[in-house]
């Protein structure tokens, strides 16, 4: 990405179609980091109380008409629920200018479906995760062929405000990223919950167990990233033959932890594929 994020976003106008939790999170990190001014942001939101809330909190312009919200934007962020996508596309179809780019964070919405429904070629499909709400997330994204390098730089600047921005090599890798990083925080949270409960079972107060687990998780991730070593190598570094870690690791392998995680990621991936194909039966919510 040529130039700083601040340079790229200095005059960019951004519209959010749907102003729910994730849209507000993106607004917040952009404004908190002083990457954009409130006048550069417009939102389309049908609920009056929500419009008033966001306008008062961030000083941004929130309107009821999605077409009005998108009219002057350089980047239009589709941050609506999947079940409202077709209705919103009907509203916006034929109103977007060729130089505008549409960035979707809607799980399962393919580039082909978005382009056809909007009558617009410049579309980017992306998948952030929940830590993006504090600027520590990771967002996988993939552009349609009509999105040129200049517009890609704008997209990357906006998405990188939420944390790490990763442009994947093909659109089908968005479904893979959905299963790994989009759904990934839920895997980590469940592991944290299990460890905390195990600590309480041993006799620790829950507050102390939470402190120990949170810092262990955070420190381990930071250490792994800083060390540059493979996780298996790091695990071996703290595994003494006949020691406590070896005993614990034996039970995790015996219980099939690796297999369960692999199966969970695969199930999430197949569900993401099914959403993209329009199959709606069964499976968990992705976001």
TrEMBL record:
Residues 13-106 form the Pyrroline-5-carboxylate reductase catalytic N-terminal domain. One of its GO terms (cellular component) is cytoplasm. Pathway: Amino-acid biosynthesis; L-proline biosynthesis; L-proline from L-glutamate 5-semialdehyde: step 1/1. Residues 171-274 form the Pyrroline-5-carboxylate reductase dimerisation domain. NADP(+) binds at residues 17-22. Coiled coil: none annotated. The chain crosses the membrane at residues 12-31. It catalyses: L-proline + NADP(+) = (S)-1-pyrroline-5-carboxylate + NADPH + 2 H(+); L-proline + NAD(+) = (S)-1-pyrroline-5-carboxylate + NADH + 2 H(+). GO terms for molecular function: pyrroline-5-carboxylate reductase activity. NADPH binds at residue 66. GO terms for biological process: L-proline biosynthetic process. It is found in: Cytoplasm. Its EC number is 1.5.1.2. Keywords: Amino-acid biosynthesis, Cytoplasm, Membrane, NADP, Oxidoreductase, Proline biosynthesis, Transmembrane, Transmembrane helix. Catalyzes the reduction of 1-pyrroline-5-carboxylate (PCA) to L-proline. Belongs to the pyrroline-5-carboxylate reductase family. This is Pyrroline-5-carboxylate reductase.
């Amino acid at each position: 990405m040529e130039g700083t994020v601040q340079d790229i976003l200095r005059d960019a106008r951004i519209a959010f179609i749907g102003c729910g939790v994730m849209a507000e999170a993106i607004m917040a990190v952009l404004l908190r980091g002083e990457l954009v001014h409130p006048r550069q942001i417009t939102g389309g939101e049908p609920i009056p109380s929500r419009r008033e809330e966001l306008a008062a909190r961030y000083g941004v312009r929130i309107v009821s008409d999605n077409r009005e919200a998108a009219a002057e934007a350089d980047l239009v962020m589709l941050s609506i629920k999947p079940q409202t996508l077709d209705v919103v596309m009907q509203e916006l179809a034929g109103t977007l200018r060729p130089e505008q780019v549409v960035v979707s964070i809607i799980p399962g919405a393919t580039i082909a479906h978005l382009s056809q429904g909007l009558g617009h070629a410049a579309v980017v499909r992306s998948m952030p995760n929940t830590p993006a709400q504090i600027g520590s997330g990771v967002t996988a994204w993939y552009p349609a062929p009509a999105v040129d390098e200049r517009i890609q730089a704008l997209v990357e600047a906006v998405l990188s405000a939420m944390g790490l921005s990763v442009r994947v090599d093909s659109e089908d890798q968005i479904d893979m990223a959905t299963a790994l990083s989009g759904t990934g925080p839920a895997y980590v949270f469940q592991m944290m919950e299990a460890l905390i409960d195990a600590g309480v079972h041993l006799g620790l107060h829950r507050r102390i167990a939470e402190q120990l687990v949170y810092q262990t998780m955070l420190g381990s991730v930071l250490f792994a990233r800083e060390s540059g070593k493979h996780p298996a190598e790091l695990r071996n570094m703290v595994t003494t033959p006949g020691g406590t870690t070896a005993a614990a690791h034996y039970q995790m392998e015996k219980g099939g932890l690796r297999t369960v995680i692999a199966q969970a990621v695969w199930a999430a991936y197949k569900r993401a594929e099914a959403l993209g194909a329009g199959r709606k039966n069964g499976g968990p919510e992705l976001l």
